[in-house]
Design a protein that fits this description.
This protein has 616 residues and is α/β, with parallel strands linked by helices. 31% of the residues lie in helices and 19% in strands. Bound molecules: iron/sulfur cluster.
C-alpha cells in the first residue's frame, strides 16, 4: 500500500544493502544500509533518491553505527525490590499491564511519551494505547511542542499538505526568508536547498538570535531581540524586497525552524511573521509560502499519528465528532476526548508512564527536573532499543528493534511517507516496537485485531488522512501552506515567556538559550563513535559548560577566550568560561543547548534572561 510512492517494502533487501531512510533529521534522505547479515557495517546514499539525490550529510553516512555500537537493550527486564532482573516477554508484558492497570483503578494519572525517532506505525499504536485503554490525554513527543508551535502560528488545523516537493520548491525560490537556529546543523539537506537557491540568484534574508553559516551568504541578516523576538525588525519586508523599501515582487518562501526552547515565543514569532507577510503587497498579501521544519526523522509523522496532548490521530481536533465516531468504530472502544498535559508538565503530574524510544532528560530544556520526575514514578514502562537514563529508572524494560532492524514508514518534513525494511535482525531478544505495543494494547483490554503490520496500516488508513491518500494514489499534495491571514497577534505573557529580569534596569547582558534541541544530546548521535566526537570534545574542553560572547564585550570586560565570568541573574549565579564569536551581537551571551544544565541556575527555566556579567 505504501509502495505507490516509495517503492515496495520488499525491495528493501537488495544486493547492495537494505533500503533505508536516514533516522536522524526530518529531511528524509534515502540510503542503503550495508550489512554482514547480523550487523550494519556501512551506509551509502541512494543515487536517484528524490530528496537526497545521491548525497548524505555526516549523520547520514554514520547511520549504520548506532545499532551496531550503541548500548543496546537486549532482553526484557522487570524491577523487583529495587533491583532489576531479566524476564521472559510474557512476564514483562503482563507486569507492565498490571502496573498500569493498578494505577488506573485507583484513579492515578498515567501518561505516554513517544519520540520522533519512532515509526508512524509505532506512534499510531502508542497514541491508541493512550487514548484507548489508558484513558488519558497525557500524551506527547518531548520535541513535538516546538513543531506544534511553528504550526500554531500558521495552520492550527495541522501540518501542511503531504507527499510534497517543498525542498525542490525552495531551490527554485527567488526570495527566501529563513528563521533558524542553525539550519546547516539541524537540517543539512534543507540548508543545501537554500544554498542552491542562492547560487541561482535568490535573495536570502536570515532571521535569528545569532549569525549562522547561512547568514554569511545571505543578502541581509536581521537579528531578533532575544527578549522579544516576536517584535520583528521593522525593515523585514524591505530587506526581503531588495532593500528599496518595497515589498517582495515574487512570493517569498519562508523556512521556519524552532530557534528557541520556549514554544510560546516560537508561536508568537511565527504569528507575527504571518501577519507581516500577509498584510502587505499589491493584493493585500505577499503570497508567502511557509515550510515549518520538525526536528527528528519522524516528528511530523508522530504528530500525525495522534501523539499530542490536544489532537486525535490524523492531527484532528479533540472535539471533531466525525473523527471521534470513526475512531470509536475502528478501535471498538471510545477514544479519550479530553486534552492532556505536554511532555514537561505531564512528567511532574503522572504516577505511571509509558515511554517509547525517548529519553526526556536529553530532549527537554530542564534535564535535572526530568531525571527527578522519572525516579519518582510508581510505574515506568520503557520501550527502547538503547539504554538511557530513562531505561535505567524503568520498572519494566521492553527492548525493541532499532529503526535499522525493523519495517515501517517515516514522514519527512515535506510530508513524504517513506517505507523501509530491516537491514539486520534485532539483537538478543529485542522485538519490533509495533509488535510490543500491539501486545500491550491487547493485555490492557483493547479489542484485538490481526497482529500484522499490514493490518495496522490498514487501520491507520481509516483514521490518518495522510495514510489514506497513499492507498492507490501517487498524487502530490500541497507542499507548503499559503500565509494565514492572521489577526493581531497577542504578545505572550512576558512573565512566563523569557523576557524576565525585573525590567530593563537590571542586567548588562542578555543570556539566551540557543535553539530548542542539540544533535550532540541525541541518543543515536551518542551511540555513534563517529558522531559523538564533536560533543565529547566540546564537553572535554568545557566540562562546566560555556557561553559565547561577542569579542567587543570581552574587550570591554578585559577578558579573553577561555577565561571565566560570573553571571548573576535574579534567579541565581554561576561562573562559566566564555568562548568568543561574532555570531552573537554585543550585549548577548549565547548558551549552547547542550550546556543548558550548567546554566540552569541562572536561566531558571527561561529561554532568555537579563544578567549582570563580571570578570572573575
Ligand atoms: S540531511 Fe538529515 S536526513 Fe539527510 S542525511 Fe543528514 S541528517 Fe540524514
Amino acid at each position: 500500500m505504501v509502495s505507490e510512492r516509495v517503492g515496495t517494502l520488499s525491495e528493501s533487501r537488495g544486493g547492495t544493502g537494505a533500503r533505508g531512510v536516514c533516522p536522524f533529521c526530518s529531511c528524509g534522505c534515502g540510503l542503503r544500509l550495508l550489512h554482514d547479515g547480523l550487523h550494519t557495517v556501512g551506509s551509502a546514499p541512494v543515487l536517484k533518491h528524490p530528496v537526497s539525490q545521491g548525497r548524505l550529510c555526516a549523520r547520514g553516512w554514520a547511520s549504520h553505527e548506532p545499532p551496531a555500537w550503541g548500548g543496546r537493550l537486549l532482553a526484557p527486564e522487570i524491577r523487583e525490590g529495587g533491583e532489576r532482573r531479566r524476564a521472559g516477554w510474557d512476564e514483562a508484558l503482563e507486569r507492565a499491564a498490571r502496573e498500569l492497570r493498578a494505577l488506573l483503578e485507583v484513579g492515578k494519572a498515567v501518561g505516554v511519551l513517544v519520540s520522533g525517532r519512532c515509526t508512524n506505525e509505532e506512534a499510531y499504536l502508542a497514541a491508541k494505547l493512550a487514548r484507548g485503554p489508558l484513558r488519558t490525554g497525557h500524551l506527547d513527543d518531548p520535541l513535538g511542542a516546538s513543531y506544534r508551535a511553528l504550526l500554531a502560528g500558521l495552520c492550527p488545523e495541522g501540518p501542511p499538505g503531504e507527499g510534497g516537493r517543498a525542498l525542490e520548491a525552495v531551490e527554485h525560490s527567488r526570495q527566501i526568508l529563513l528563521l533558524e537556529g542553525d539550519l546547516s546543523v539541524t537540517h543539512p539537506r534543507a540548508a543545501l536547498a537554500v544554498l542552491r537557491a542562492v547560487r541561482r540568484g535568490a535573495r536570502l534574508v536570515t532571521l535569528g538570535l545569532a549569525r549562522t553559516p547561512l547568514s554569511q551568504v545571505a543578502a541581509v541578516h536581521l537579528s531578533l531581540d532575544p527578549l522579544r523576538p516576536f517584535a520583528l525588525p521593522p525593515d523585514l519586508l524591505g530587506a526581503l524586497g531588495g532593500g528599496n523599501g518595497r515589498p517582495p515582487e515574487a512570493p517569498p518562501t519562508v523556512l521556519l525552524a524552532p530557534f528557541t526552547s520556549d514554544p510560546r515565543i516560537v508561536a508568537a514569532t511565527v504569528r507575527a511573521l504571518a501577519e507581516v507577510l500577509g498584510s502587505s503587497g499589491p493584493d493585500g498579501g505577499t503570497g508567502a509560502r511557509f515550510l515549518p521544519l520538525p526536528f527528528r526523522a519522524n516528528t511530523r509523522g508522530v504528530l500525525e499519528g495522534g501523539v499530542a496532548p490536544d489532537r486525535l490521530p490524523g492531527g484532528l481536533a479533540l472535539d471533531d465528532p466525525q473523527a471521534l465516531a470513526r475512531l470509536r468504530q475502528v478501535w471498538g472502544m471510545d477514544p479519550w476526548p479530553r486534552p492532556g498535559l505536554d511532555a514537561a508538565a505531564l512528567l511532574e503530574q503522572v504516577r505511571g508512564l509509558v515511554v517509547v524510544g525517548e529519553d526526556p532528560p536529553r530532549s527537554l530544556p530542564a534535564p535535572a527536573k526530568a531525571r527527578e520526575a522519572l525516579k519518582g514514578l510508581e510505574s515506568l514502562v520503557v520501550l527502547d532499543a538503547y539504554a538511557s537514563a530513562t531505561s535505567d529508572a524503568a520498572t519494566v524494560v521492553l527492548p525493541v528493534a532499532a529503526l535499522q532492524e525493523t519495517e515501517g514508514t517515516l514522514t519527512s518534513l515535506e510530508g513524504r511517507i517513506q517505507g523501509f525494511g530491516p537491514a539486520v535482525p534485532p539483537p538478543g531478544r529485542a522485538r519490533p516496537g509495533w509488535e510490543v505495543l500491539f501486545r500491550l494494547l491487547e493485555l490492557l483490554g483493547a479489542p484485538s485485531g490481526r497482529a500484522a503490520l499490514g493490518a495496522v496500516r490498514a487501520e491507520m488508513a481509516e483514521v490518518v488522512p495522510g495514510f489514506r491518500s497513499l492507498v492507490g494514489s501517487s498524487a502530490e499534495g500541497e507542499d507548503m501552506p499559503a500565509v494565514a491571514r492572521a489577526g493581531r497577534t497577542p504578545e505572550p505573557d512576558l512573565r512566563r515567556a523569557g523576557a524576565q529580569g525585573g525590567g530593563d534596569a537590571f542586567g548588562s547582558h542578555v543570556l539566551v538559550l540557543a535553539g530548542a534541541f542539540d544533535w550532540d544530546d541525541d541518543l543515536m548521535v551518542d551511540a555513534s563513535p563517529t558522531l559523538r566526537r564533536d560533543g565529547a570534545s566540546r564537553r572535554k574542553l568545557f566540562p562546566q559548560g560555556s557561553v559565547t560572547m561577542n569579542p567587543a564585550d570581552a574587550r570591554a570586560l578585559g577578558i579573553r577566550s577561555g577565561w571565566s565570568v560570573r553571571l548573576r541573574s535574579r534567579q541565581g549565579e554561576a561562573v562559566v568560561p566564555v568562548s568568543l564569536g561574532t555570531s552573537v551581537e554585543p550585549g548577548v551571551l549565547l548558551v549552547p543547548f547542550a550546556f543548558r544544565e550548567a546554566l540552569s541556575g541562572v536561566l531558571g527555566g527561561e529561554a532568555a534572561q537579563r544578567v549582570e556579567v563580571e570578570r572573575t
